[in-house]
Design goal:
Elements (H helix, E strand, L loop, with lengths): L3 E2 L1 H8 L3 H9 L6 E2 L5 E4 L2 H14 L3 H9 L9 H9 L2 H17 L12 H6 L29
Antiparallel strand pairs: 1-3, 2-3
The chain binds FE2/S2 (inorganic) cluster.
FE2/S2 (inorganic) cluster (FES) binds next to loops.
Length: 155
């Protein structure tokens, strides 16, 4: 006999709100069966799918990307160790980019970030005449550009 979980059981064990589970189900990320009275019942394996979804969201994947990743698995199957390895490998580049961004943020918070405000003393050195705007919108130096991208000396 299969050990089925109510939505409350699943929410408690997974650490997510029941509304989130209903949302995941509407988005076809998880699947339930219904009792004769119309109540949702989840196979215990759904816990691993929910864990996968939560981790993927923390990595920054969109629901579409998560759906695509899970779509590679048969509906009835929960990600295996091999699946985890393969799927998480594809997150590496994204994580590397995020780490790089956070390092820029950490290192540059107290100096010019290339946002166009030109209000800090350092901006006169790093972003004269808002030259960083030529690299795109937003705080260019936090987004990965460097003054050298404009042919300006420094780092
Ligand atoms: S901090 Fe805004 S342009 Fe330098």
């Amino acid at each position: 006999m299969i050990d089925l979980l109510t939505i409350g059981d699943l929410a408690t064990r997974a650490g997510v709100a029941t509304s989130a589970l209903r949302y995941y189900e509407r988005e076809r990320l998880i699947h339930s069966s219904r009792t004769g009275g119309g109540q949702r019942r989840y196979e215990r394996e759904v816990l691993r799918r929910v864990a996968f979804i939560r981790v993927a969201q923390r990595v920054g994947l969109t629901l579409d990307e998560i759906r695509t990743a899970l779509a590679g698995l048969p509906e009835a199957r929960t990600p295996t160790v091999d699946d985890w390895e393969r799927l998480s490998r594809s997150w590496r580049a994204r994580l590397d980019t995020q780490i790089e961004l956070l390092e820029h943020l950490r290192d540059d918070l107290t100096s010019c970030i290339g946002c166009g405000c030109l209000s800090f003393k350092a901006c006169r050195l790093y972003n004269p005449d808002d030259g960083a705007a030529a690299l795109g919108e937003g705080p260019r130096y936090l987004l990965g550009n460097r003054p050298r991208d404009l042919g300006i000396g420094g780092n």
